[in-house]
Amino acid sequence: MKFERQKVPQPVYGTVNIYRIGDTLIDTGHVTEDSRMAMADALDSGGLADVERVVLTHPHIDHVGGSQTLPELAALPHVVFEGVPSIITDFRRYLKRVHEEIQERSIGLAADRSAIDESYFPIDDYAEDDIQIGRVVGDGDTVRLGEYSCEVIHTPGHSRQHMALWHADSKTMFSADLVSTNGHFMYGPLYGDVGSYIDSLQRLRTYDANYLVPGHGPVISDPTKRIEEALGKTRRAMSGIKTAVETTNDRIAAGQLAREVFEATEETIGFLTLVVCEYLEYLEDENEVVISYAEDGIFAASS
Ligand SMILES: [Zn+2]
């Protein structure tokens, strides 16, 4: 299968991939100015000239940016998963809720959140009202990418509205943000879920893909190994958190768990505490821990 990968700048975490397959564009970068300029240049200079349709893998700010900031992209018909239209056509409200979740989970941390805060609200003028929803798809539907027919695979975990796209003939899986570059569970605001993430990785493994084509980083040519690694890291993180909670006499702060289990530094503690909170919510659902929300932080204790 032939596709063109372009890397688009995004704040804090490196670059995000967009893919061109014939007349189809997968994802549209971040909303920041750097990203918007890169997308605008590609539309002008030919890299994205004559693109006629957009497929969004999931509604995160680094994957829908061009749709929100470039009227010519907003006007193209968008193919999106169930639940995505209400998010991207009311994007400022969604971002406000994301911001609230991040603030709430950062209570008690001395971490500097300003870079993340700024990256979430770089502009006021989102094209949310102008985005054309061409088609809403669900699990098992067929989507055309250029000349290729692909199957929609619902892969929640990083985002409840996350889809992978499977091209059976070439055994190519556009896996977006499900399998991260470092193999760790990647926090996704509001709709992340560790349990669904494990289920989605296990489902992805059954396809025996030759390639995973991710939302960040280079194409993955050893999918089974990378999926196994991701599952292993998740299991280890889970048992590390459980053990740390069980061996604490009283209660332990989410930030402290990030330091002990993920070796968080001052630079990474903010993001890794969000990750810990996702694990804690999963463990609470499994009756393994009890979470308490206090004025000076989020804490976990044995159940
Ligand atoms: Zn994402």
UniProtKB/TrEMBL annotation:
Give residue ranges for domain FHA. 131-191
One Pfam match: Lactamase_B
Superkingdom field: Archaea
Which InterPro entries does this chain map to? Answer: FHA_dom, Metallo-B-lactamas, RibonucZ/Hydroxyglut_hydro, Sec-metab_biosynth-thioest
The protein's name in its UniProt record: Glyoxylase, beta-lactamase superfamily II
Lineage of the organism:
Archaea, Methanobacteriati, Methanobacteriota, Stenosarchaea group, Halobacteria
